User: Fold these one by one.
Assistant:
Number 1:
Amino acid sequence: VKNVKSNQQNGNALITLFFLFHGQVEAQHCVWYGECGDSKIPGKKYNCNYTGPPLPLMPDSYELLTELCPGFDYGNRSLCCDAAQLRTLKGSLQVPLQLLSRCPSCFFNLMNLFCELTCSPDQSQFMNSTKFSGPNVVEVQYYVGKTFANAMYNACQDVQLPSTNMKALSILCGKDAKDCNATNWIQYMFSDENGQAPFNIVPIFSDVEVSGYTPMNNKTYACTEGLEDGSGPCSCQDCVNACGPKPVPPSPTPPWTVFGVDAMYFIMWASYSVFLLIFVGVVLGTWCYRKRTIMSEYAPILDSNSPLSLNSDDPIHATCCETLGERFENLLRVLFSCWGSFCVRHPLSVILGCLVLVTAASVGLVYMRITTDPVELWSSPSSQARQEKDYFDEHFGPFYRTTQLIITTPINKTFIYSPYFGGANVPFKAILFNDILHQVLDLQLAIEGLVATDKGQNVTLQDICLAPLAPDNNNCTILSILNYFQNSHSVLDHSVGDEFYVYADYHSHFLYCVSAPASLNDTTLLHDPCLGTFGGPVFPWLALGGYDDTNYNNATALVITFPLKNYLNDSDKLDKVLAWEKEFISFMKNYSNPNLTISFNTERSIEDEINRESNSDISTIVVSYVIMFIYISLSLGHIQSFSRLMVDSKISLGIAGIFIVLASVSSSLGIFSYAGIPLTLIVIEVIPFLVLAVGVDNIFIIVQMYQRDERLPHEELHQQIGRILGDIAPSILLSSFSETLVFFLGALSNMPAVRTFSLFAGLAVFIDFLLQISCFVSLLGMDAKRQEENRLDVCWCVKLPERYEVKTDGFLFRFFKKVYAPFILKEWVRPVVVAVFVGMLSFSIAVVNKVEIGLDQKLSMPDDSYVLDYFNNLSEYLHTGAPVYFVVEDGLNYSSLEGQNSVCGGVGCDNNSLVQLVYSASLISNYTTIASNPSSWLDDYFDWVKPQSTCCRYYNTTGAFCNALVVNSSCVPCRPLTPSGKQRPVGEDFMHFLPMFLSDNPNVKCGKGGHAAYATAVDLYPDNTGVGATYFMSYHSILKDSPDFIKALKMARTLANNISQSIDHKVFAYSVFYVFYEQYLTIAHDTALNLGVSLLDIFVVTTVLLGFELWSAVIVTITIAMILVNMFGVMWLWGISLNAVSLVNLVMSCGISVEFCSHIVRAFSISVKKNRVERAEEALAHMGSSVFSGITLTKFGGILILALSKSQIFQVFYFRMYLAIVLLGATHGLIFLPVLLSYLGPSMNKAKVFAANQRNIGTEKERLLGYRANSMGTN
């Protein structure tokens, strides 16, 4: 070396003259050799100036030369570099090796560039030393062929970073990969500003000779080509040209139209028009025919010559079915009559027995559990999403909890930043102003310093946060752009400049970091790191919002995310997290800054707000019930005169009836609590409302039938009430039993909330029926005795003097009988009614398929909730979707090449591997909703374990892992630098080094350590004997509303199924929101099934309990079906989406609709009037008033109060839907159904008419009916 240096000094003058006269260095000349002084870059050295011929490499460095620059491994290996330079080259290329070697041709070309620069014996042909410092070369010019540079760039431009879903050039180019090209990439790598190059290398690009220098233009390999050493071409993921045609998403299904109009609108409009023409034609034809023949509207059924006249004693022509129906109904009548008589004769025994049974059932409430966990409410344990969630939680731990802030500013200004070293001006929005960032940092640091208390112990963020590099680095993960500045005020203010100019400050650092968030050293004069203090990158799309494209400087919002630990079966640790979240919420509610507008959310926020909402709605519900209670108590009585006000009122009976309703609810809750079935808020809030609607109607019918009835001669009170109960109890049984079965069949739903509601509601309705025909009948008998004895209501001990009062009908009954029923059934009104209701039905059918599916999460929050602001900002500013994990279930053999190739995405991997298929899906993210390449632990492991890398080393004394930062001679590479050692590890080798990879923290010498990115991604068998389940993570594209989330779930599952088929192993997609949105994949089917089964149940029960009158059952079922279809029309008009809550209400509306229809149809079926119109009028007059007062008016007042609720979900799904249920039920039951019966009602059951005649023989009723029949015949 001394001789070399001496020759250098002696020949300097000659060499200088040589350059002046010849302008070039002759072949086989060097421009440097060996290393001299220390560079200004810490840990780096300058090369020594040397212009002599290449020198032979020392034999102990041959292996290193073969590893780095095999092209020079020939002859006596005379080179322009020594062993020290080769070692420096190896160290300098560690990061590119780890990032680019997954594409062999790319890395080969890059090594060619640096080997020619460092060691080429022909250096002087394409290199020129331009600056010196003593013996040190401090700057050189490197003439590089444009063809070579472009070919190298083209081979490397698509290489991916599996752990970050970024392109490798984002780190190696000093700017975002999309802004990188061949020129600025090489310039960045050669610039001493990057913190890695020991001195400045000035690349000059040309394909022709320049100033006597011939540019280096060695042979390159395209990424689609294999190398001579047998390495294959790059994978499709790392080389677009290696892929087939870009996948093309299928064209969206065009809307179904007819003549440019929505097909459903057109079809239903046309159908309705045809119906109107036919219907109007038939009505007009019938009217003209009657006028011509001067006949009455219908052929008389009851006349003196009819075998079924009122005076007939022979049930001739009664069919077998009619006879069977009459006998069944008579059996029910006899049973209920005897039971009613018994209840009135033994009231105390019946009431006491009911109290004992209700108390015993209600005691179960002490075991009551209320479920508020959204997962338990909306996802069945047997559902696919729930099972996949459980599998994920079991193998990888539960998904972390998220605390997040979205910060904007009311300041509407823009600062134009002009880079000192040239370039276009860059606008910065106000949220990125320095003073605003300092205020945000103050807030962030204050949050980091929060101290909560749990069970007497202090809890800080440090105790509960995710720290991926712990225990080596215990800093919490905080996804905030302030981590670009190490969460430090001083770093944020760091700038370089003089008194005239600022060369670099936080603007330039920010612009660099958003393009290379994983960088440890920016390219500005600041040389500050971008990597977060927790050891990971902060991707700008996670920490910024409101920007366009990738212009992050235009961001209008900052997003700060604190991922927190989550625990499945450790309530003590989870309580600590909950305590800190509670403290955070309290702090944020009290935080104020005029320059910042902040919305925030924690994992517990939604559940907290739902609970608060439920508590705040208690007052609304109570007021609603009180109004209904008061109405029931006051309206049950039929006041004959003011003097008898307190005698004829039925306040105490009404209150008792209400308590019976509540007792049935508490009994149902208690019985299921005994069984360990948890309650839900839907059960608590809806079932009392439902049972009140169903139960009160029956109470009104029983009481009003008694009030209208005349006691027969020699008939006692218990016999009268027994007879009344025998007449009306079958109708009550019909409605109650139908409703009970409807709700129990609703329990077939897979949704826990719907199933639980259906079970509780079905049992409550059935218990209510039993209590009404027993306890309430006894109470009615006691109240009737009180009234007959002229005792005051409530104060039974006070008795008024005897006074005769003429019994009159109630106002509502008189109105229905004298005014309403005759009007509705007028000859000209009936066609109008049919036309209007069929029109409503047609419209509703047309829009059924347009009802939106899903639940806007904003609706679940109270009007005044802080979470609403967060939801609004989330949809406005967020620029990325939720993470999605493709989970490979246990059983795949990763130790075999076949297993590896089926999953990985690098060289040699299958074209239809898991990683490749997810990558292909990300190319059409607008269709698939998969936004990015998957992070692949397997590919990173292969790069980490390569023998050329310094990542995988172990102590040859103990076999323990040796981190890349450790300087120790006993640390040796994991695998030998042999052809077999360069291959992927298989068999025992694979499992031997994998645990080391998963425990290795990334560092400046090895960025591929898997601890931070993959510690939870691989589930190892005990004692590290094999690989169990693993996952590969990607992200969904931006998801803003329910249709987006539903589509994302569908597409991810489709992709996972394709992967499973491709690799012949089970793979499923998992994201944290899937358990909530899975229900919507089948909600339409579930709704159709639930409502279809309910209608079938109503049909069967009605058929049986109406005495096998099939046509009556058909009419009831059709009417209820119309109500349900019209409910969908209302949902579309009123913006109510289809989800579990609305499905519960639809099932409930099916049950309540029975009340509106069944009583009137049964009254019609047993009427003995002469024609359908009169039978319909009688049924409407007698039952319509009870239905109207019992359900419609009772519910109307209570429903209106719900509109005042602060809860949006109450306003939308309860107020709007309940109102629609009552209005549609009332209009169909009290308007359309009587008209339908007048046209198409079943003919009279001849056996029932005969039986009715027999029962009325010798009674006042026979005289009245006979008189009416005779007078009709005379007329």
Note: The CA atoms of residues 841 and 1126 lie 6 Å apart.
Number 2:
Amino acid sequence: MLLKGMVQDDVDGSVQNGDAIIGINEDEQSVDAIKKNNIRQDSTIDLFANIDKSKLDNDVHLISLDELYERFHTDPIQGLTSEQVEHAQQQYGKNKITAPPKPGYVMLFIKQAFAGFNLILWVGGILAFLAWKPIGEPNPNIANLALGVVLFASFSKLLPTLATVRRNGDEQQIVADQLVPGDIVLIRLGDKIPADCRLLLCDGLKVNNSDLTGESKPVSCTVQCTDVNFMESTNILYYSSMIVQGTGEACVISIGDKTVLGKMNALTRDSGHDEITGLHREVNRFVLFVCASTCVAIIILWITWGSWLNKDHKGFLSVSDNIINSIGMIVGFLPVGLPSAVTLVLTIVAKRMYNQRVLVKSLQIVETFNAVSVIATDKTGTLTQNKMTVSEILWDTQNVYKVPVPEYIPAQDETIIDTVRRLSVGAYNTARRLSMGAASVVKRLSSGNLTQVTQHETNPDIALPSLASEVNVQAFRDLLLGAALCNNAEKQFVQEAELGGDIGNMKSELKLVGDAADTALYNLCVDRCFIDVDKVRKVNPRLKALPFNSANKFMITGNLLESLELPPSEDDGRDVLITLKGAPDMVLNRCSTYKTNDNIVLNLSQDIKQRLVERQEELGKLHFSKNGYRVIAMCQQKMKKKGYDYLMSQYKQQEKERKEDQEDLSGFPSGEYSFIGLFSLLDPPRPEVPDAVLKARRAQIRVAMVTGDHPTTAQSIAKQVHILTTEIADINGIDTFKRSEKDGKFLLNLYRNGQLTGTHVPGEVKKLDIKESNTAKTTSEQIDDKPKPNIWRRAWSRIKLQFSDPQSEVNRDKQELIPYAIVVTGSEIQLMDDYMWDWVLSHQELVFARTSPEQKLKIVMEFQRRGEVVAVTGDGTNDAPALKRADLGVAMQAGTDVSKEAGDMILLDNNFASIIKAIETGRLLSDNLKKVAVYLLPGGSWSQIWPVFFNLWFGMPLALTAFLATVFCMLNDVFMSLVMVTEKPEKDIMSRPPANRNKDHLLNMKLLFHAYAVIGNIECFTGFFCFFYYYIDNGIPLNHILLQFENFTATNSHFIPDELNTIVYTGQCVYYCSVCLLQFFNFFTSRTRYTSFFSHNPFYGKGQNLYVIVGIGVSVGIQVIVTQIAWFNKVFQTAPVPVKYVLPTLGFGTAWFIIDELRKLYIRKYPLSFLAKIAW
């Protein structure tokens, strides 16, 4: 175990120094004797490598109780005094685990205000102010000042719990963070251990240490030390562990960060990893592209002006005009709507994920979901329900009742009609159960016997009713009665304080408390058989109980049965039901009779007993491979109350004379019971997991099970949830490998379906020869002893990391997956070299069983070395390193706080299916950001830079001013891009392969070609067509527009200057409105990548997005305000636009819409065609 390896060195050191050679139990068993029985197995990874081990009190479990009291200055009867507590609190502080440091909000503001696109806007804003004054003197243009203003305007813990302690001789409840070492803590069922403690007293105490070990099996506690290893000794209780049975008292030995959990938390908190997410890099690459493009365009602009225009056409453009053109270039290349779109899409994703019961700690990590190619998942609690469930009830020698499992129906949007139907059906079922129960009571009352049941001949071949209330078999009813009475599970109000809330205002939540078997039987009675357990227990009060313990392996209860014939005052005449449940072998040995299906009690002969044993074995063969399979047998015995009282009085009289080795059953009979039947229990898979795994497989994501359970159990659950499928695991085969020895050399024998297929010599580095061209590169070929790079190389590496993903050592594209399954155990992982890892991880279906936490971490690292993007689930403290290392760490809400801190996201419902939903949401995020880019670049970039270049090179009037370009980018396009990010997923989004981080960037050549060369050129052509159409229609021919430079006014002298200025301003607004209108068509074509508009339209159906109407309305409104309102016309030099001059845009837009629909149809029909390969 991971934690065992962490502390073993400390214990060994203390023993060697002679500090811990102490008698620890009544048999004076020495520490050396314990060490001989506990051979250390070295861990691969030491999680306490950075911790001073000399400060760990790892002998505290070895010393005697008297030494313990002396060390912590405490008293088991009186506890600590108030003065001691105050002094200890000053010395040790509060019992809290240090939270991670909070971010500095000033630095966050600076980063947001000056990073990325915002820095470019700062530059543009400053230039606009300079163009107004002083460069714009002596006639500063107020529009330049307004442009600058517009540019600047574009920036737009552990929950407190209570602990019962003994202080100053009194028991009192305190807040857990007030505990100090030496406090005497009182422990009972359902408590959460508030600190690391040493047990002083225990009565049938069992604790769940899954927070640390990841194993949910309860551990029986003792007062004596049972292991020299601190983490293995059962007299130590660890912070955050849960008490599942019994009571006890303990002494606090460590609090807060000094606890084992605290040390693990510090490790995961301090160990950093690459905090630069894929989304950061995508945006950084976008910024780099924009900066480079803007710089190149501005350099061309100034070279053109300085070397040609300022000499040959002096007076055509002034310095101020050229600065404004430079600003136009900045705004033209800058997709201003992208930062807002990224913010909004992350907000939408956060809301969507919360509705899917997923909490993402950093929204930037969501982009990683799009690239996840492997999910390494736990089994218990993630794939399975982590709840024992009764699957079958058996009685007699062949009768069985299969407990109905509710059919899983995926959650869908519910209409009003569905709601009415659901409520009416629920009301009908409730009335039906009540009427059946009433009829049963009337029939029993009329017969004069409350316990009488109508008998009939039952053929075991005839199927029993699915409803338990309709099964009229007395043995079956007795089993249910025993399940309700011989059961310690009960519902209790558990108090918990809200985060940051007042301890005095704690909320109480009703929860079922008890061990796994008792809660399974309780849920059987309540949920499946509709029995009011509380009422049954009330009318059949418990007289006495013998709790289950590891020695007896059974539980006995005595209950006074209800009687309608006798008044309550005459209890002596009533029957007492003694029920015994436990392990089948222990129960059968105490039975002399058994009850048949016909309610006849027969002698339990050796033959019948053998048949019952064989039946149990057959049941075991049937369910052995199922997770957590368990069988509980039950028997009973009835006697009068007088007889029961006599037994109890005899027990009390003989109690003092009883020998230690004599069986103590608290007065209950030791035999002569009547065998009733068996309960079959198992931990079933979550009903929604199989569909989720199939959905992941369709998305070409491999799901690998990594569990600590037995390989057979893991393999069975993997088949039930489709991790191992019929097509691959059953038909093609399952691979395994085993270690062998030949001629003094160790070999690994490779098997397929049990047949030897090859051998491999461990340690010899080989290439995985799947195909000649698919050779994987191994790390042995890399030279590791390179000199440390200098400061400049390190700085360059950090800068490079901002833009490019870390390169994996092995390229996944060079390793082809093979259509076989494989099951690997933890003991075999230690034998694997690079060749074996290549071979194992090339399988399409993978199951890793009996793995330790360090092996889980190794599996994650090996996946990553081969270029996989790995998502890992974990709930225990020992899962923290793997969660931290993974590309996407998925913690469970039911897990430890350390695992939640290490993970990137938390599943609030602990459900594997939520991971698949999160991946789908991550793909939607990536899709929508690409769509935003495709939408923004043509109109907000390409269509804005060419008017500037045409103005420079062809001496024509500027077709689009910097102000109109800014309004277009920051208002028109921003609103429409925000509508784009609210788009719903296309139907094929989960049938695409995971994104390749090295190729599938937000900006790539395919997207740029589509945005600029295709849509951008269409928009530019349409805008200039409408622009020239307006000029020609107003009496200015094409030869009076082009190549006129400073002579434009003189050439068109038949217009007075004011008229000519109005034509220029109107032409600019015509270009602006034309591009705005064509952007609507661009929106409708870009909102789907491959799906037809008509099957994913925004007006109805699954693709409905009515925000489109709002976005179009706002964009049209902005155009009207800018061009039609006189104040804007005067200040910003705009003019009203006649509608007829932008109507050609409708024709061009419709033509483009039809062409794009045909393009998508061709891609869907021919997905391997050239057109499909260049599609964005």
Note: The first strand starts at residue 162 and ends at 167.
Number 3:
Amino acid sequence: MLHPGVFTFVDWRLCVPGDGIPKESCPFINSAATDVEKSQQYDSKSMALFEEEMDTSPMVSSLLSTLANYSNLPTGSKEHEEAENNEEGARPSKKPVKAPQLGTLMGVYLPCIQNIFGVILFLRMTWMVGIGGVFGSFIIVFMCCSTTMLTAISMSAIATNGVVPAGGSYYMISRSLGPEFGGAVGICFYLGTTFAGAMYILGCIEILLIYIIPQAAIFKIEGLEGPEAEIALLNNMRVYGTIVLSFMALVVFVGVKYVNKLALVFLACVILSILAVYAGIIKTAIEPPVFPVCILGNRTLLSKSYDVCAKIVELDNETVTTKLWRSFCDSESLNATCDEYFNNNDVTEIQGIPGVTSGILAENLFGNYLEKGMFLEKRGLASNVDPDSPVSNTNRYVLADITSFFTLLVGIYFPSVTGIMAGSNRSGDLRDAQKSIPIGTIAAITTTSTVVSHPRIMTFSFRFGEGVNGNLVIGTLAWPSPWVIVFGSFFSTCGAGLQSLTGAPRLLQAIARDGIIPFLRVFGHGKANGEPTWALLLTASICEIGIIIASLDSVAPILSMFFLMCYMFVNLACALQTLLRTPNWRPRFKFYHWALSFLGMSLCLSLMFICSWYYAIVAMGIATCIYKYIEFCGAEKEWGDGIRGISLSAARFALMRLEEGPPHTKNWRPQILVLVSVDAEQNVEQPRLLSLTSQLKAGRGLTIVGTSVQGTFLNNYTETQKADQSLRKLMETEKVKGFSQVVISSNLRDGTSHLVQSGGLGGLKHNTVMVSWPHNWKQPEFHQQFRNFIEVVRETTIASLALLVPKNISSYPSNGERFTEGYIDVWWIVHDGGMLMLLPFLLRQHKVWRKCKMRIFTVAQMDDNSIQMKKDLLIFLYHLRIDAAVEVVEMVGHLSGLIEKLEIDSCFLFLQIQSITDSSRGSIRRKNKPTLQPQHSKEEGGSPADKPDDKAQLIYSKKTTTPSSHTPAATWTEKKDAGKGRTQSASTPEAGRDFLNMKPNQIDVRRMHTAMRLNEVITKKSKEAKLVLLNMPGPPKNRVGDENYMEFLEVLTEGLNRVLLVRGGGREVITIYS
């Protein structure tokens, strides 16, 4: 999906669909031209100005020619038929596949008609009207038809927004909503189509066993009543359903071309049945048929319980009792003891089809919902019932065999309108899908809605024709014979079942071949001709679940859920594309609006819960699980979908909101810029930096991993891409959620500065920088490295960014390690806004540090009350909701005593200044033997020559101009012993002359003393700590003291294994308030 201001470059030389490039990103839609053909296309000298670009950019003439010759090759039935034909006889060359020739009528309109006029219309429509009433049935039909019409409008807009390859509805939804939604909805649509096959098969068996050949029942129903008869019927459905399912699956497996050839026959049966019903309606209006129904009182009698609708008849001037009498009385005699209700009520015979002018519509205007086992009573007839008398002979009446209510009728009826996607599913077989799908689908919905909304002149409340001699209820209206409807509906359900078993495996195969759901990839394979064998096997297995349920009224709500969910997301896709106004959204179908799509989506969601709230929850749960599975484990696909557009719009909106001001302290979290270096192979040199970053991400903040490549953009772009891939791979390995950024600069110092300055976007910028300690900074070849490090410290200070400097990063734990015990020690020397308190809390949220305990140390000065400090700190931690042990360390009197011990003479001062000069040039050892020895105090035991040169150094400033009246104290960085000195050799005479112009800087002496004393205390207290967090001193204002600054930090952290130096960003990051 392209947006204004975004430039996209595609190498058309490599643009071959199937090579990892989606066909929608390629201008040559149907091109398979060879390099020779392409060179011939560009073999023109009339465009010499552009001849250098002909290898990468197509000529307009060739592009238009390719587009004009485009044909939407089917991947459906036609392709499989030709593959099968090719298998029948070996042919030297493959026959060119013909372009699809199906138009609107045969390709969309009639298939939709066939699927909509299905099993529910023939088997349940009249029962629904009898139970729900004309008004209630009209509401149900209106809601369902409105839902499908709105969905068809949205689908038409999507279908006309570009070429729709074979794949139909799944292709449209997945490319509009992305792989996650597309996969979830595709699976739901697949399950709905599969259970639809089970529903059609059950309807086929119901027609066969009840209306055509009742004698074929394996489990005999004759003589059984109530639950026993119901169980026997369900068992018959299971046995015969499994047989029919196996036969249909075999037909589909052998060859889909037979299914396509039979489709026209089945379609003709549907049309003939509808015409027969309408012919019967016309005949009924002129001459109502004689179709009696026997009523006792107001209770409808079973047709098998009587031969004549009368208690007694006159035969040869003699009163004779009938079969009905014998059903309710204990003998045939007129003085026999009979059922009380039978004695108190008369027998009435009414017309089952009274005609349009009989007033039956007004009588049955409102619903008559029944509980299971209740009598089916005729409205308007009197009934004499003794409430105290027991009910008997219930097997002689027509009883409600299912508890009915409005929502049940909605769930049962909705599958009868779910054939609206039959045309779009054949998009690969259509001559012009963009024209045929909207016209054919909307015309089919209009036709079927008109038919089913016709005023119901038959309002029977029994499902299986118990009151009309066991005939198919709607068949009683057909002309010229009820058998037209019986056989028409039988073949219609068979055809619909075959179509479902043909379409569902191909839908699953399309999902599997997209690769968005890894565990379904096996179902993308099939026979040599492309037949989805494994998908067909899975489809038949799932369909068998519906067969085992065996009840048409129980299976119908299940598939209603899946189809409604599919329709809901079609409406959502259209609404999102319309509201986002993406440049590529230009449908040819103009009669759509986002409000209509939202209305359709709302209707779908409402109908899901109206039909069955628990089925709706289960269906949504399945879709959610699939969505999450694809999100975490599925293949990443970029289809230019609407969800990506939502993400872009939401990101833009959020970034604009972040610009309104800095975040509140309660919302502060570390947004870390991790500065790493790469080697010559563009591999990260400090991978443990990303491990530490991952362990700090309990704050869920932004992470940017950045590095700099030395060179120019034109010459080193390849190295940049390689470095970026290396960063991304390492981030994925360390499970760091964030972004990578690589910049090219003439030198690494400027590149790092660019990252610090320009990282992030708008208000979503880093507030913390993490950089590793330059461990080899004393070696001459690494001098520039530590100078770059100090510049980063200065830049973060100026930019008010927090700074994290892990020292000895290689010793930090990886994400796979676990500390079973230990401490995280915080040395809180100065207040840094709370960073030192927040970081251990975030670390302890990670499994690596979870079992470590937190200790906080702070330093008391001469005038501080250490006892009160500890109490205040405990209260402060309590309000911060942080559990930690507290200790106050007193450092009083050390400075004056140390200065007194370190009084030295001028000779010793000269030697130490020379040592500083050499140290700043690389800490090179002296080769000359010392000519002067300093005077050591009694406390300075040991031979000075035994001490290594890099363990002692004196800190002065060469530019100090303030004179001193006495010789200042010097400071060594000896290991834990302030009083031990060592011998320094004299150097050249120039160094002696430099001494005349140099004055010692007492501030540096004090700094070194502080570093040494703090290190002594920290080492004593935190030697065994798993991690030590410490305030990082600020850098020197001028660059002359950079070496001294590094030496301060070395002394401060000497002897500690893992140290994290922390500098605050100049703002509070933690608060005690809620």
Note: The chain has a mean pLDDT of 75.
